[in-house]
Input
Amino acid sequence: MNLSDWLQRQWYEAKPPMALVPLSAMFRVVVAIRRLAYRKQWKQSEHLSVPVIVVGNLTVGGTGKTPLTIWLADFLTRAGYKPGIVSRGYGGRKHDKPVAVFSTSDPLEVGDEPVLIAKRTACPVYVFPRRAEAARALLANTDCDILIADDGLQHYALARDVEIAVVDGERRFGNGQCLPAGPLREPVNRLAEIDLVVCRGVALANEYPLTLTLSEEAVNLTDQTLTRRLSELIGIQPLYAVAGIGNPGRFFTGLKQMGLSFEERAFPDHHAFTTEDLDFGENATILMTEKDAVKCRGFANQRFWTVPLQGEMPPAFGEALLQKLKVKHHGQKTA
Output
């Protein structure tokens, strides 16, 4: 068992390791001081000329932020906005200035999630660790009139008008401890300050449910016009399912619910795939997530298939978002 697997088990399946609890207490203090610094304006948040929506979570790992960001971009476009998206570009190469991301960009250069977002939304996407600089570059080169900051909840250097937090409905907040004894980036009481709380799974009374559904059709990596119903793969062997995401088990479970039987291959989140990773024999059929697929298209063959994931939000969420955008004065919320 590697360190990542051990930590996940401690965070979600066991009591917090006592040796790490003092470090978690120190982490909470640092988080509180940092937020206070922005509240008191000892540290400055940059206000932009357009509304800013940040999407993030309190816990480490995947909760559905990327599917929600894609849904938001589509929803805002249909509502008459021209959205742009900024992201850190995690997993990509370090750059000395903001970089534009396209559907054809190299994930090793700009990160896998930004490439997937660019591919699915056709919206302008820029990456840079300092999101405010990425946003300025995006606004200078496009006609966007609203920004979505993907995974930007803790990036207080960028002022925001609406905050959206995504919660894992199955695992919630694990043992309730902050890093490193638990999975929390910020204490749970931070949710009381969030404008809209979205839950992937069973939502509580004050949360909006995010429904993520695997497509019933797989798309070929070498020819996107070529599709195949997953029901046609029932009984096909050898069949492999590959996932290098925050919670690979969700992908595997979704495929099993469609009647498929396969060998599971889980990789770390944002894993940089090689041909050797996926060398399962010349007759193997391989299914993978969209996030993994953008990193494999350079060496994929016709045995590689991706299964799209579609996110849906209830109408009430969209109405609440538009109302908050309407009534909030730009720059009112900073941290």
Residues 216-307 form one domain. The first helix runs from residue 3 to 13. The mean pLDDT is 90.
